[in-house]
Amino acid sequence: MATIGILIETEDGIVKDTNFGVLTAARGQGDGTIIALMMDGPADSAKDVLGKYGAHRVVQVSIDGADRGASPDLKARALAAAIEKYSLDALLGLASAQGRDIFARLAAFMDLPLASDCMAVDLAAKTVKKSHFSGKTFATIKMSGSVMLCAMRPNAIDAVEAPADATVETFPASVQDPGLVKVVEVNKEAADKVDLTEAGVIVTGGRPIASADNYNILSECARLLGGTIGASRAAVDAGFAPHAMQVGQTGKTVSPRLYIGCGLSGSVQHFAGMKTSKVIVAINTDKDAPIFEKCDYGIVGDLFEVVPVLTEVLKEKL
Amino acid sequence: MQIYVCVKHVPDTAANIKIVGENGFDDAGCKFIANPYDEYAVEQAVQLVEKNGGEVIVVTVGKAAAAATIRAAMAMGAHRGILVTVESQFLDSRTTAQALKAAIEQDGKPDIIFTGKGAVDSEGFQTMYRLAQAMGLPVVNEINRLALGDGKATVGHEIGGGAREVLEVSLPCVLGTTKGLNEPRYPKFPDIMKAKKKEIKTLAIADLGVSVDGARSELVKLEKVPERTGAKMLGGDVRQAVEALVKILKEEEKVI
Hints:
The complex is a heterodimer. Chain A has two domains: 3-173, HUPs (Rossmann fold, 3-Layer(aba) Sandwich), CATH 3.40.50.620; 196-317, Rossmann fold (3-Layer(aba) Sandwich). Chain A is 25% helix and 29% strand. Chain A has eight helices and 17 strands. Chain B is globular and about 65 Å long. The chains are: A alpha/beta, B alpha/beta. Strand 12 of chain A pairs antiparallel with strand 11 (164-170) of chain B.
């Protein structure tokens, strides 16, 4: 029986919804024990919600006499200590910006195999399935090593509840910071939106959006859907949106349940970043736009006319 | 400054990938480019050397054809190149990191090693971390801000949802670059011609004492991602089309 660790990510002390898909993936691996590891955020208050998705044990990982925020290497070493303490066969987590970083530090430090941005995992076969060649192919990667490290693409696996009675415990890790990387400042001022890579719904505007202000039209629609807004490379390069909003190659890879592309042509580079979305809707004035060949539902029309009507209809129907 | 830039020769993202056998692809029939994220790394290195003096050395691990990507970096201003040749189409990140380490240490003493934030072919996002660990150096990935001073690098990167983090590392260090750090230059024709005369040192991976047997991961299968076959178009006037869409998303797809 496998013992599977899950690195839980929190936002302002709340367990992010995207963790539940990772827990569901871990549960699909036979009758293993699932240990949720929390580096930050209170384990006590997270116990119920993690138990709901099948976590058996919730472990608060603390670091003796150190500020956890001090260094990403210190966090990775604390996780390494937890892997040894609980004899984990695998550690799963999210391939968010922070998740990708800590998993890579951990893999390098422990000299373990890592697959980042996984779509599926099979611990018995020691394989993962992940995007390769900019989303054009899936690769099955076979791992060798005592522990498998898998950072899962957020939203790749639908969360399914399976209540378990989770227990809570604390693990004080005795680890030292190698002193190589120092965090000087964390600025969350600009972080007022749902994180693009983890959003369940994304409404994206291409170059026809024509100005930064016009994204407000999309924001209102996205807000009603509980999602966030994105931008194409052309819109970012034209200065209408910051790079943080860019979806596609040289931007972010996303996998929401609903992706609404407004004024997008449908380039290969854009699709590299969003083609694993569950449902893709396109709105474009050009009925021959390539995006209509590659999406699920299409409306031929001007985004400035269609999106406000969509917002209106959503207000009525949701 | 002695700056090393690790680059990768990758299939053009717009190229059609033809899968051969279980886990190979037709690389002879496919256009290759320099990994797009590596261009920010090359540009940064060239700018630093233009300002502070020194040398930019481009290092890559790949098939012999990867020399083209070294030439592309040279046309942007890199001075020399090192090509570590391998036979296989896919090399795991651990082996690649060992080869890069050996090639760099054999060549000189780095002040900074730049890489792209990840490669668009294997999408592994880990080689720079393994390289840094093997060399005992600090590493920060996905940087889009950089300032140097007092033997230190202050770097900035995004940590999700628009939040930003500023970190400090001592030189030498390994830094993975992404969009926003700079605007990579388009080489002019004379620079492309000049690049053809620059030196590329070519070594086989075995010459560096690195064995490909230490791989921790292996690509065992490649398959095409199923493509959508075309949209269901929703007609009528705007209101009718939108109402039809909302009904489908709510009742059939159940995504809202």
